[in-house]
Design goal:
By secondary structure, this protein is of the alpha+beta class. It contains 5 helices and 6 strands; from the N terminus they run αββββααββαα. Helices cover about 55% and strands about 10% of the residues. The strands form 2 sheets. Strands 1-2-3 form a 3-stranded antiparallel β-sheet.
């Protein structure tokens, strides 16, 4: 079945319109990414000043002194996801409920709930207050890892035993 000249013209117009929209969206996306990178760079230069000895200068106002940071925090984003705050800093959901956060669109799927990003400096401060400093936090993390390992071992204890059928 052959297309008429009118149909061919309509297809051509639709294609051109679609390509123009695609180009416009790509330009908008590039401009938005550039803006985000500039904002992140200015935030990083203002908020994350790490000295040579591994201590971090906090600009929170109430902590004017240098704070010792852990290895995983070096070069990390100033924002922490809820999952990371609970795993790395051993904070319960109740503590996170009182922390300030910023909501951003979910990067995995736009229709899902927006993700909550917490300020790393606040999460670090609350975790250290809760567990009595860096040593207490590290000890709590070690204790939870041991408990998780013990639970995993208990679950897999009978994996290789013959079942009686």
């Amino acid at each position: 079945m052959a297309l008429t000249e009118e149909q061919k013209q309509k297809i051509k117009e639709n294609r051109e319109r679609a390509l123009a929209l695609k180009k416009k969206k790509a330009e908008e996306r590039a401009a938005a990414e550039k803006k985000e990178l500039e904002a992140a760079a200015s935030t990083k230069s203002n908020d994350d000043r790490t000295s040579q000895d591994g201590t971090k200068n906090e600009d929170s106002g109430d902590e004017g002194d240098n704070v010792e940071i852990e290895d995983f925090e070096v070069g990390a984003s100033p924002w922490v996801t809820k999952d990371e705050a609970m795993r790395k800093y051993c904070l319960p959901q109740g503590t996170l409920a009182v922390c300030s956060y910023e909501e951003r669109p979910n990067p995995r799927h736009k229709s899902w709930k927006p993700m909550r990003l917490y300020k790393r400096s606040e999460i670090r401060r609350r975790a250290r207050e809760r567990f009595g400093g860096l040593e207490g936090l590290v000890e709590e993390r070690r204790k939870r890892d041991k408990k998780r390992f013990a639970n995993d071992m208990a679950e897999t204890r009978d994996v290789f035993k013959k079942s009686k059928s």
